[in-house]
Design a protein that fits this description.
disordered C terminus, eleven-stranded mixed beta sheet, 346 residues, single chain
């Protein structure tokens, strides 16, 4: 199946200097795929001037006259910038010209625009931000990472269903285990929202493991970890800071004196492997789950390698039928399917 990915070429801290080379690298590694670069044609063409003709033939440029600023209020981006590169890229998914959209732009604006343009899938109240993080024996999918600060128990169950579908599609896990992030493993712990969500998950038909704590995320205790967006975003930013701290501490210790520099030469293969394993760029790209289309948010400050991973993630989600898996998962859960019918009738 041929897949087309719409790329917001102007989004992020670096714009076409990162998005265009990343798109070219992705196309070079992926057959039977096209990319539509959305933004200001003059800036995009400058970045494409040395592109091999074979790759250039698989790229289309879609003009957009406006750019959403990284600090721009989401409401302003939605109402006042209808020809922004972000909005046009999302519109391409809605119109069927592309099967996925990737942007490194303003997260709030991307969520607002994508929800307004694409709408949510049946049975889903709000989209959630999900991403894969490194775990002891592979990866773990965590959501919500910042889209929904306050949630209901039913919405946490929706997140679990979507996270299960994502892990099944991308990581090829038949029945992913679900963990509910809490202050303890015991059923009596947590606030009322978490307790009720746990009860609903036990009756959901999902492969619910039970409550998990923060350290279970990186142990890989479950394939999916579900939480509200406030908790998830704090956890994510703390984890990113810790990864940078570990790398900087190791670097400082190994360059402290001639003896430690010699030790660093001996240990270099191990250090390089360690750096690759925790490199945030390898996990770049958070999926806006619950929409009627695949939308992936890249970190705004990432480099070419990181943005290429975000495009690859969007491509994989389309290729593996993630949206269909989510729809099937929701339909198979009577409590959510009933809510969807009630909402439609209202």
């Amino acid at each position: 199946m041929s897949i087309t990915v719409a790329v917001d070429a102007m989004g992020g801290d670096h714009g076409p200097a990162v998005t265009v080379p990343a798109s070219l690298q992705f196309l070079e590694a992926t057959a039977d795929t096209r990319v539509i670069l959305v933004g200001r044609p003059d800036a995009i063409e400058v970045a494409l001037r040395r592109a091999p003709s074979a790759l250039r033939a698989r790229i289309a440029v879609q003009p957009a006259t406006e750019v959403v600023g990284m600090d721009e209020p989401p409401a302003d981006a939605l109402r006042r910038k209808k020809d922004s590169s972000m909005r046009v890229a999302v519109n391409l998914v809605k119109d069927g010209a592309a099967q996925a959209c990737v942007s490194a732009g303003n997260t709030g604006a991307l969520m607002a625009i994508a929800k307004f343009v694409l709408k949510t899938l049946p049975g889903i109240d709000r989209p959630a931000i999900a991403s894969q993080l490194p775990a002891r024996n592979g990866e773990v999918t965590v959501l919500d990472l910042g889209a929904n600060v306050q949630v209901s128990p039913q919405q946490l169950v929706q997140f679990a269903a979507m996270g299960s579908a994502l892990a099944s599609a991308v990581d090829h896990i038949e029945r992913p285990t679900i963990g509910l992030l809490n202050v303890g493993e015991e059923e009596i712990k947590g606030n009322d929202v978490v307790k009720e969500a746990a009860e609903l998950l036990r009756r959901s038909g999902l492969n619910f493991h039970g409550n998990v704590e923060g350290d279970d995320i990186y142990k890989g205790t479950t394939d999916v970890v579900v939480c509200d967006g406030f908790t998830g975003n704090v956890m994510l930013k703390t984890s990113e800071g810790l990864a940078h701290l570990l790398y900087e501490v190791l670097k400082a210790e190994f360059t402290r004196n001639p003896l430690t520099r010699l030790a660093a030469l001996v240990a270099y293969p191990v250090l390089a492997a360690f750096k690759r394993r925790i490199d945030p760029r390898r996990y770049n790209g958070a999926t806006l789950l619950g929409l009627r289309g695949v939308v992936v948010k890249s970190h705004g400050g990432t480099d070419v390698l990181g943005f290429r991973h975000a495009i690859a993630k969007a491509h994989a989600e389309v290729a593996e039928g993630m949206l269909e898996r989510i729809a099937q998962g929701i339909a198979a859960m009577p409590m959510l399917a009933a809510e969807s019918v009630s909402a439609a009738d209202a």
